[in-house]
Amino acid sequence: MAILTGVIVVATLIAMTSGRVPPVLALIIALLVAGVAGIATPTELFSGLSNGGVITIAAMLVIAKGVLATGVVSRVTFRLLSGVTTPGQTLRRIVPPIGIISSLINTTPIVAMLIPATKELQQRSGVPARSVLLPVAHATTLAGSMTLIGTSSNLIIAGMAAPYGVQLSMFSFVPVAAPVAIVGGIAVIVCSRYLLKGKPKAPAKDLHWRVEIPLSSRSVSVGRTAADVGIARTAEYELIDVRRWGESVVTDSVLEEDDLLVYRATESGVRMLWTSPRFGLAPHHLFAVTIDTNQSGSIRDLQDDEDLLVVAAETTKRFRETSLRPGRTVYVSTASRDILTHHPLVGLWQNAAGKAPQPGKTWIALGVLLAVIVAASFGLAPVELAASIGAVAMIVTGVLTPRSAVRALDWNILAIIAGSIGLGVMVIESGLGGYLSGAIIELSAGSIPLMVAVIALGTTVLTNLVTNAAAASILTPVAITVATSMGVNPLILLILVGTCISFTFLNPFSHQSNLMVMEPGKYTTSTFVRFGIPITLVSLVTAFAVAWPLLTFWH
After folding, report:
1. Which residue in 85, 248, 256, 388 has the fewest CB atoms around it within 10 Å?
2. What residue ranges in 151-303 does DSSP mark as E strands?
3. Which CATH number fits domain 209-358: 1.10.510.10, 3.30.70.1450, 3.40.50.300, 3.90.1150.10?
């Protein structure tokens, strides 16, 4: 069975790495073949579907969506990066706080939020997004490995280790992961200066869209100027007027409730303004609608009730002075798609942007996240239960709607993680894990330093070939067996594995965050390899230097 399992596992990993087969499909086929071959029972193979780690990951995705929906990361990022002029200065300011956040919530939505923030920084200050995005992605990955909930692989390791009597708590990974995150973060900043050089191209933008956004009482911009909060000018938009009670005031005035901010913008700038958390807009979607009418009137006539707001149109005039014309595209927001469906002036419409951020819910969302962390850290509740309660709290308190919470669940990632756990079960039940453990012990020749080096290097190679979930599922039972055979503390060895699984720096397809920044940063696979090699070497050396003394001390 061990040989057959080895063939299945290798074939699955090759299929997942090639990119020709969806990873979920490759894993499902592997589990089905293993079930037919009798390697393990169906209950064992599909145990990942009810695994506590998978449940926790799903709940934390909802919690992360709730926190990010308040726009708090965007606001904090703007304050941190205010006045920066170089990539090095940008990274020194942003890496430490983003690293802390990454250890508490899933890194993927954080990177998603930082992509538009770095683009805005490039337009505002001339700092190339290329010099910032990849270092930030790697820094968040390193920092995410410091806690149990910071990355999915740690949760998988904890779930698979529990039956062996090895208990991993919220901060068990800190002794190895924290030094690696600090040293690796420094390496990321230093290497980016020499390996990610580039100047942003700044072609002239055609600001032919007029945008009118009212400032609500919920806005964080009230009492401050537009420049103070970063909504005055970028390459994508420019504030041209502030209207107060129907009269124009200077654009650098202190903003007040109900002010109407008027912009010239590109079409991308329209979406950027809408998704900014600084206006306190209603939690509505932005829609691009096409006019379907032969009646006379103005664009403002679209806004025939308080449930629809005209946001942008291609015009240099006020909306009330811009005539309706069949085929004209206008951006509007509304609480219900039904209003657009039955509106007599709307011919076609499509969703253009998600709901506007809701900064008024910031403290509720942060309070829920803090409660989950405290409950899990002090053992007040199992981590999966604490996270699930937190996810429900995001809905009950109105931070997220039930539909938004469901959309926060990345079913593809969850399925890959669940399937990867089944792959680990195959390795255990077939006896393949014993052979792998024996090979590591033989290579180590009874030497703890050599054993640490073999496991750290093997984990790093595997995690850059396949998903971190698959690497965690395969290596967890192997590490426990090696620790038992060599008489060392399995907890430290599992912490080492969990830390090294985050070294996904060489292959853009080995981590979701890598793929997310690849296009915005204009990176290639060779960029990842060139930038990733020194980061990987520094991280490996640090992990070895920390784990070896710990294992020797608890030998």
Report:
1. 85
2. 209-214, 237-244, 247-249, 260-265, 285-291
3. 3.30.70.1450
- Domain layout of the chain by residue ranges: 209-358
Determine the 3-state secondary structure of 528 from DSSP: helix
From CA 130, how far away is CA 197, in angstroms rounded? 8
The dihedrals phi and psi of 230, each to the nearest 5 degrees, come to 80, 30
Cβ atoms of 310 and 299 closer than 8 Å: yes
φ, ψ dihedrals at 272, nearest 5° = -60, -45
Helix (H, G, I), strand (E, B) or coil at 132: helix
Q: What is the CA radius of gyration of the chain?
A: 26
CB 56 within 8 A of CB 506: no
DSSP 276: -
302 DSSP 8-state letter: G
- Which amino acid is residue 218, in one-letter code? R
Q: What angle do CA 175, 176, 181 make, to 5 degrees?
A: 110
Residues 417 and 469 sit within 8 Å (Cβ to Cβ): yes
Burial class (CB in 10 A: 0-12, 13-18, 19+), 189: middle
Mean pLDDT by 10 residues, the chain (555 residues): 80 75 82 85 79 83 85 78 82 88 79 76 79 90 88 86 86 93 93 74 70 86 87 85 89 89 88 84 81 70 74 86 81 82 77 73 89 87 90 91 84 80 80 79 83 91 82 87 87 93 86 80 86 94 93 73
Read off the pTM: 0.75
* Residues 6 or more apart in contact with residue 165 via CB below 8 angstroms: none
Integer Cα distance of 497 and 471 in angstroms: 9
